[in-house]
Write a structure and sequence with these properties.
Layout (H helix, E strand, L loop, with lengths): L4 E4 L6 E4 L8 E6 L4 E4 L3 E4 H12 L5 E8 L5 H8 L4 E5 L7 H11 L4 E6 L9
Parallel strand pairs: 3-6, 3-8, 6-7
Antiparallel strand pairs: 1-2, 4-5
């Protein structure tokens, strides 16, 4: 494809391809989240999904994404809902019942997506670079 670049990968002898998207196609960034917290030295107790959302908002260079956060049983704080909605996204609740089925939750996530292109991520990650 015209404009694609082959760049060094993370490990010696590996490569990655940077594919241009013109115009940037709409993408749903679907974040599968619980309400898990973790103690991080120097930062204290953090809500993992909120940390991930903050990193996306601060670092993403892709202009055409919409956030979709799927939590379990509606447990995310109102502040997280407000943060997502302020950027045109939404939070939806998955009625999680035992036994847990990742396949059922994933199917639910995709049923909530509006864009043709979807990136499915766990809420305990952190975006480290713009691309």
């Amino acid at each position: 494809q015209a404009g694609a670049q082959v760049l060094p990968g993370l490990l010696p002898g590996t490569y990655r391809v940077d594919w241009p998207l013109s115009p940037p196609v709409p993408v749903t960034l679907a974040v599968v989240a619980g309400c898990r917290r973790r103690f991080v030295a120097g930062r204290g107790d953090i809500l993992l999904v909120e940390n991930f959302l903050d990193s996306i908002i601060a670092r993403s260079s892709y202009p055409n994404y919409r956030l979709l956060v799927v939590d379990d049983n509606g447990v995310l704080p109102a502040a997280v809902h407000a943060k997502v909605e302020a950027r045109g996204g939404r939070v939806v609740s998955f009625a999680r019942k035992p036994p847990f089925s990742f396949a059922k939750k994933t199917n639910f996530v995709f049923s909530q997506c509006e864009a043709e292109h979807v990136i499915l991520r766990n809420g305990d990650l952190q975006q480290r670079s713009g691309d």
